[in-house]
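Key result, reporting period 2: structure in, sequence out.
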């Protein structure tokens, strides 16, 4: 049996008529840039996330970049964030001329250790950027409390966590800004790059819409130098078609995770733990295992897809050597990078496939 880490063909086939119809509508209208489906999706997504505004942009990376730019992150400022995340989290800070200040992660949730944030605050700190890694929200009450006491902006990197909840509140809706990615592998994926920013601020909504359009409110009249960062009409149309299915897909991921948790109970594997406050949507189901590379090779031999998110924490990346971090500075993230492996969890996974995955993993660890 071959079990891929993700099978996008199954998702497409389940919605083929709807998606094809949405695509043909865009093609017939030929409004490929800023067509009506973009506004329709933004309005639907804002309502879904419980926010006043949603701003479609070209990628999740751009969502982070524009959000930080909109609140004044730039040369001479610092942003506190986790070291255990996809590269865009820190790369966007660097690209704005700011300094990334890395914090270690919580042993159980993979998210930023909120107990370490406050001691990293300096007079240059402008924002805190928690990452809701693998589909589970960080401890937002603690983060918002720290931010309020130090007059800091909170930008939620929710790229992997659309539909996740924190104490009943949707991811992205708690901080000043929330950023999402619609990369195809996300649980709400476009057929290419795409992203979104959500906010309740009138001022930030206005500035973000200007920044994503070369800094212009009116075409050809530029108030500032911005970017070309649009969510394509085709992508918006397809996302609008998929959005009503998102809750069902997240429930299916949670069901698959519950199956794995039951199967792996009592084994040497360390399973992902959902915090009491979290509605975890398992964009990834990530195990910790001491002989990770051995399990990786075993899964490959058995035809089971996997991925290692992430093999090296950000503070040890070559491009960030100038920040002065050394091995052992953030030990939990460093140890996790040597142990983590993610196995198939996608909603369309069949029962016989997940049983084969669990049997194969358990055979190795036993």
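The corresponding designed sequence is given below.
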């Amino acid at each position: 049996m071959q079990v891929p880490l993700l099978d996008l063909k199954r998702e497409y086939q389940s919605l083929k008529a709807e998606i094809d119809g949405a695509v043909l509508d865009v093609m017939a209208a030929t409004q490929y840039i800023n067509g009506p489906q973009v506004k329709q999706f933004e309005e639907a997504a804002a309502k879904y996330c419980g926010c006043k505004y949603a701003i479609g942009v070209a990628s999740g990376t751009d969502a982070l970049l524009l959000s930080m730019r909109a609140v004044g992150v730039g040369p001479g400022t610092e942003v506190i964030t986790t070291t255990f995340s996809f590269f865009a989290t820190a790369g966007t800070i660097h690209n704005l001329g700011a300094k990334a200040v890395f914090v270690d992660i919580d042993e159980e949730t993979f998210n930023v250790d909120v107990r370490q944030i406050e001691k990293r605050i300096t007079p240059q700190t402008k924002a805190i950027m928690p990452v809701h890694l693998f589909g589970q929200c960080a401890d937002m009450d603690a983060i918002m409390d720290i931010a309020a006491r130090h007059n800091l902006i909170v930008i939620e990197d929710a790229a992997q966590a659309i539909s996740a909840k924190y104490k009943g509140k949707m991811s992205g809706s708690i901080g000043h800004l929330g950023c999402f990615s619609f990369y195809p592998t996300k649980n709400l994926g476009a057929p290419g790059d795409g992203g979104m920013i959500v906010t309740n601020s009138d001022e930030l909504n206005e500035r973000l819409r200007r920044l994503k359009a070369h800094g212009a409110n009116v075409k050809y009249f530029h108030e500032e130098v911005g970017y070309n960062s649009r969510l394509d009409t085709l992508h918006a149309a397809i996302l609008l078609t998929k959005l009503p299915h998102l809750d069902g897909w997240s429930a299916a991921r949670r069901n698959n995770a519950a199956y794995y948790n039951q199967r792996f109970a009592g084994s040497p594997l360390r399973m992902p733990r959902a915090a009491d406050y979290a509605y975890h949507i398992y964009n990834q189901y990530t195990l910790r295992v001491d002989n990770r590379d051995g399990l990786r090779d075993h899964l490959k031999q058995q035809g089971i897809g996997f991925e290692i998110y992430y093999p090296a924490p950000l503070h040890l990346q070559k491009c960030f050597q100038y920040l002065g971090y050394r091995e052992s500075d953030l030990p939990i993230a460093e140890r996790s990078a040597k142990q983590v492996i993610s196995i198939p969890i996608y909603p369309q996974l069949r029962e016989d496939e997940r049983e084969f995955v669990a049997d194969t993993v358990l055979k190795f660890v036993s």
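The chain has a mean pLDDT of 98. Residues 41 and 83 are 32 Å apart (CA to CA). This case is discussed further under Risks and Mitigation.
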